[in-house]
Amino acid sequence: MLATTVRLSTIAPVLLWSLITQADSIAFTNQAIIDDWSTKSFEGETEYELVEWNGEQVVRARSEQQASAKYLERGIDLEATPYLHWCWRIDTQYEGLDETTKQGDDYPARVYVARKTGLLPWQVESVNYVWSSNQPQGTQWPNAFTSRAQLIAARGKDDPSDQWMAEVRDVREDYQRLFDSRPDHVDGVALMSDGDNAHVDGTAWFTNLGFSDSPEPPDCPA
Fold first, then answer.
1. What is the pLDDT of residues 136-164, one digit of tens each?
2. DSSP conformation letters of 111-136
3. For residues 151 and 174, what is the distance between their CA atoms, to the nearest angstrom?
4. Domain locations along the chain
5. Of 47, 59, 74, 203, which has the maximum CB count within 10 A?
6. Second-level CATH architecture of 29-212
7. Model confidence, pTM
8. 142: how many CB neighbours lie within 10 A of its CB?
């Protein structure tokens, strides 16, 4: 799905209590992701809701051949908080896809960041951290629709789909590697589960999404 279609310049302001900010960390609450983050539909609407997991509230994203993202437009200072972290889990991988093609550009789970590079809506570069169904972990490739969106298999075809995984990414390093630039900020963050191009269904769970100055991984649900 074309991640850069998210037009950051047109996103409605989000309430300040949608996140918890300290000098060295920004934590996005799961309640705020559901209630306050904007929705961008690409094809139908993925269902996003709060559910309980072993006594903790997490975000569940359920796509039935749909594609929509929950996203927040907000400047994030990468000099102060360069590390993006989150926990996620999926119910199944999408077998038989070629994710480098438009027909196979679907992922049971993805988290992405975007930064504006100009005044026009399409002048955006995004890094997509995806749970790949057919690429090994660590593989990177351009989005099939636009080179202004680059993808990284934060989790890959050999990772189990029956357990929570903790992620930490140095966003500046990823931009340096993928776009040959080292931005001091990004302008938005989003999460999504989609299956519209290949007509597949998937469910993902997310929690503990935020930025910090520490490379330590977050604690995930049991």
1. 999 999 999 999 999 999 999 999 998 99
2. EEEEEE-SSSTT-EEEEEEEE-SSS-
3. 10
4. 29-212
5. 59
6. Sandwich (2.60)
7. 0.89
8. 13
